[in-house]
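Progress against Task 2.4 (sequence-to-structure conversion) is shown through the following example record, which the project officer requested during the mid-term review.
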Amino acid sequence: MIELRGKAVADAHKAVLSERLAELQAKGIVLGLGILLVGDDKAAQMYARFMEKTAKSAGFGVEVAHLSADASQAEVLAVVKRWNEDDRIYGVLPLMPMPPQVDPDVIIESLDPGKDIDGLTARNIGLASSGKGGFWPCTPLACMAILEHYKIPLAGKHVVVVGRSQVVGKPVALLLLEQHATVTLCHSKTINLEEHLKQADVVVAAVGRAHVITGDMLKPGATVIDVGINDLDGKTVGDVEYASAIEVAGAVTPVPGGVGSVTTTMLLENIYEAYHARNVNR
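Structure tokens generated for the chain above:
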């Protein structure tokens, strides 16, 4: 059984990105990231600090706007507008959740699609899904980067994606189709999930429920990409029960240490892609 650890994937992508950023820095160009945080959610604050530290250490400029929990929607929109108009900012990352008086959909759709580095706007969703450019969400990109790094074959293979969210399930299914996989998309209303999983050469689990998939549900030798991050009795676990999965599967991503560790790198790559789209591809 191969453990598909994310660190090796992230390190390989960071090495390439570092070379690209060094070339820009030699020309005096620093790519800016705007991180928008509204309210007092502890997880969002932790992620904002993590992203700020990670981006700065990689050579990006970072501006964090932390608004109070009673901030109005107009105040939040003003920050987005300022960053949309700031040529130094190449990516804007609005963190969720937001307080009830702020409509996250309105905030997301106010983003300049060219700076929407996590593929949240309707425009980017449409462009990406139709094969006409745009930004893909970073977690699906991380799944694909892991499969590519470890040379997991996809063409002609049967892949079952469990979960149909707009940020993971649907986009990763489309990315898998681009690699000529035969994709089945399962969800909470799927009848007899195990029957589908037993046929899968590759499983992508993105449900958001701890240990919803166990080893006895898998096809022997299958590759398992576990996107889930759940708390179970004080421990961080995936959607897949790791201990039983490794007895059956041929390759599995651990949680933590798998997909999540690659997602951040994909976000940083998208900032560079935003620069490239604005200055090279126009």
